[in-house]
Amino acid sequence: MAVSVSVVLLLLVLAVIFVRNGGLKFSHALVCLLLGFYLAGTSVAPTISSGLTATADLVSSLRP
């Protein structure tokens, strides 16, 4: 688990740097994809999923 958390933190830092840099290339997208896969295997995955579901429900209930 400690290695997993280290990899997630490393990938998160890299993704933030890539996004702030403004040039999201294929290699950057691959790092973001790997971050997503590693986050899905951690204990925060249900929290992220429920947060995204709540946000999607909120957006879908808005009427223009």
Secondary structure tally: strands: 0
Structure class = mainly alpha
C-alpha Rg, in Å? 15 Å
* Sheet of most strands: none
Given as residue ranges, the uncertain stretches (5+ residues, pLDDT < 50) are: none
**How are helices and strands ordered from N to C?**
HHH
Number of domains as seen in the coordinates: 1
Quick check: average pLDDT?
78
Shape, per Cα inertia axes = flat
Number of helices: 3
**Amino- and carboxy-terminal Cα gap:** 45 Å
- Helical residue percent? over 70%
Content of β-strand: under 5%
Describe the structure.
With 64 residues, the protein is an all-alpha fold. It has one domain (2-61). The protein is 81% helix and 0% strand. The protein is built from three helices and no strands. It has helices at residues 2-21, 26-40, 45-61. The chain is flat. It starts with a helix and ends with a helix. This is DUF2304 family protein. Keywords: Membrane, Transmembrane, Transmembrane helix. It comes from Streptomyces broussonetiae. The chain crosses the membrane at residues 25-45.
